[in-house]
Structure formats: C-alpha cells, structure tokens
Amino acid sequence: MILLTSCESEKFTTANGKVMEVSSLAGMNVFDIAYEYSNSSPETLTGTNNERWVVYFDDIDITLETSKTTNIVQKAKKGKKPKSSTWAN
Fold first, then answer.
1. Which of 75, 85, 84, 86 is CA-nearest to residue 27?
2. 34-59 pLDDT, tens per residue?
3. Where are the extended beta strands (E) located within 1-88?
C-alpha cells in the first residue's frame, strides 16, 4: 500500500478574503477568530464538555478545539471534525 501525504500546510480563506495557515489559529482567542475571520455563527460540535469547546465555522470551513477556561484555541483543523464522542480525548 502506498500512502501519499502532502508537505503543503493547510490554508483557509477568511470571510474578508485573506488566505491564512490553519495552524496559525492555535494559541489565539476563539472569539477574536470569530469576530475577525468569520461571518457565521459558531456551531458547537460533539466533543464539547466542561473543559473543552469544539466549534465549527462553516463560512471558513474550520473546526477549533478550545479551552473553556481560557478561550484559547488548542487545535485547529480544516473541515468539520467533531470528536467521536463527548468523552473523546
């Protein structure tokens, strides 16, 4: 079996047309991202619990996993990526 992986980093286009690296969102405040880069309402996804908020922005096609205590993005992924269960790691 051959597995092809891309060395190219994932990019997304903000609501105002700016192209950015998905990885650049990690460490940012989720509400700054919501106000500066997206025009859609965040959709809470499976995997959200008392410590973590998993949220999807459909207009920029990005899923963010944030700390509820700090609102800081821990993980950012292209596409809609809910956790497999509410208690998933």
1. 75
2. 999 999 999 999 999 999 999 999 99
3. 11-13, 19-21, 43-44, 52-57, 62-67, 73-78
What are the C-alpha distances in Å from 5 to residues 2, 8, 9, 49, 53?
A: 10, 9, 11, 32, 29
In residues, how long is the chain?
89
Give 17's contacts (C-beta < 8 A, 6+ positions apart). Answer: none
State the DSSP code for 10: P
Dihedral angle over CA of 67, 73, 79, 80, nearest 10: 10
What's the confidence (pLDDT) of residue 33?
Answer: 96
Query: What span, in angstroms and rounded, lies between the C-alpha atoms of 31 and 53?
Result: 12
